[in-house]
Specification:
The protein has 3 helices and 5 strands. By secondary structure, it is α+β, with helices and mostly antiparallel strands. It has a 5-stranded antiparallel sheet with strand order 1-2-3-5-4, covered by helices on one side. The structure holds guanosine-5'-monophosphate. Guanosine-5'-monophosphate binds next to strand 2.
Length: about 130
């Protein structure tokens, strides 16, 4: 198991104040990329590509992970994906990019607050499983 995989085994899905809550409230500084009334995005502290941006809902809506989604979450889930498309344009990722949502331990999620990774700015590899 890689260090990255090991880190995600400590995921506490009931954590009340995650790092991303602290980023939204300003307790932890972040490099803002884009925001509107519902969505906030900032540069990942440990980028895996030239461009690596995290996109989160400003309110958690009970979404500690994607598998917690209910029908009532359809508007915010759609909004997050649309926001990613706007951010990608702002970042001039016109040659392409990848959007990733890690879900729970086997998906390598480490922060229990729904978030999308926008990754690009260079040619990416595939597959993301670590296997050929
Ligand atoms: P996950 O593994 O949960 O899908 O992604 C969490 C992401 O949050 C990781 O890519 C990690 O580098 C990023 N991250 C963790 N803590 C911080 C922080 O304090 N600031 C920022 N900007 N990113 C963080």
């Amino acid at each position: 198991m890689s260090d990255e995989q090991k880190k995600t085994q400590n995921l506490n899905i009931n954590e009340q104040e995650t790092i991303f809550h602290k980023i939204i409230s300003g307790k932890i500084p972040s490099t803002k990329v884009w925001e509107d009334d519902e969505v906030y995005s900032f540069r990942d502290i440990n980028p895996v590509a030239k461009t690596h941006i995290i996109v989160i809902p400003k309110k958690m809506h009970g979404l500690n992970m994607l598998s917690s989604a209910k029908e009532e979450h359809i508007p915010i889930l759609g909004k997050l994906l649309y926001a990613v498309s706007l951010i990608a344009k702002q970042e001039k990722l016109d040659k392409g990019y990848r959007v990733v949502i890690n879900c729970n331990k086997e998906g390598c999620q480490s922060v229990p607050y729904l978030h999308l990774h926008l990754i690009g700015g260079e040619q990416l590899g595939w597959p993301p499983t670590g296997k050929k």
